[in-house]
Design goal:
Largest sheet: none
Order of helices and strands: HHHHHHHHHH
Structural class: mainly alpha
Oligomer: single chain
Strand content: under 5%
Shape: globular
Helix content: 55-70%
Radius of gyration: 24 Å
Length: 316
Amino acid sequence: MTSVMSVAPEAPARPWPFWRRFVWAFGVVYVFLAMMVGTQPLLPVTAWPWVQGAVDRVSRLVFGQPVVTPPGPTGSGDTQFDWAWLFCLLCLSVLAGLVWASWQRTAPTARQTGVLSEFLRMALAVWLTSYGLLKFGFGQFGLLPGGTLDITYADSSPMGLLWRFMGASAGYQWLAGVAEVLPALLLLHRRTVTLGALMAAVTMTNVFALNLFYDVPVKLFSGHLLLIATLLLAMDARRLRALLTGEAVPAVVWAPQVWWRRLLPWVLTCLILVLVGVNMRAGLQELRVDRARTQVTQEPLKTRGFHLINEVPFHH
């Protein structure tokens, strides 16, 4: 992964107007909080009682509604608590952005930009890899159970319909896994960060649209992953524009890296590829078992799209 010191020596900092400094500072703080302690946090602070109590008080004060705690795990990342907690993080980011913009009166330094890029790449690669590996082993959507083919569209929720659509095709689930793991691998290497971010943005646009229009309760989190991919592209916007316009841009000058920083991306790449192979092997075994069960039971013939029928008439 790119070292935070893998940039050329810094030029003198340029002054920035307050609004630009605030937008930068607010964005950095908000993305960091959203990934570290947000709806699917790397640090599970939302389980702390004092955090839940504080969010409930904010919800009562601002929205006039108490936060209703579900009786058990729901698997949802769009609960009332999640929305109220996100509002708290948004307010905290505004305050931190104002303080930061008042303190630093210049444009962000190369070190600050490098640290931000490192964090965005790490967060996006981790979650893309996690969701992608699940798909190779059919751990997210599963394989379509035969009995569900007797359910009508009217009996399906929008999310249920999407899950059955994905579960009906093992190959399509693997393709979706490739669409998530491949950009994660590209994000590990500094020469392919922009390509990885571009592929991740395409993938996450589709995922966010499916979550939004099929009412999958991961809208907030998938929207934030799409935001991260967009921010990575925005950080290289000048070069992307030059790709279309032919504009000349200076080459990126990288400082030498220590040996383990050069080796780490390749170690992680090999590890992820091994995990893909392990999950694919488990998925193939599950697929063989499912196909064999279909041949010896009275389940609908899932691979041919019609039901078994009784060849002897009932009135015979």
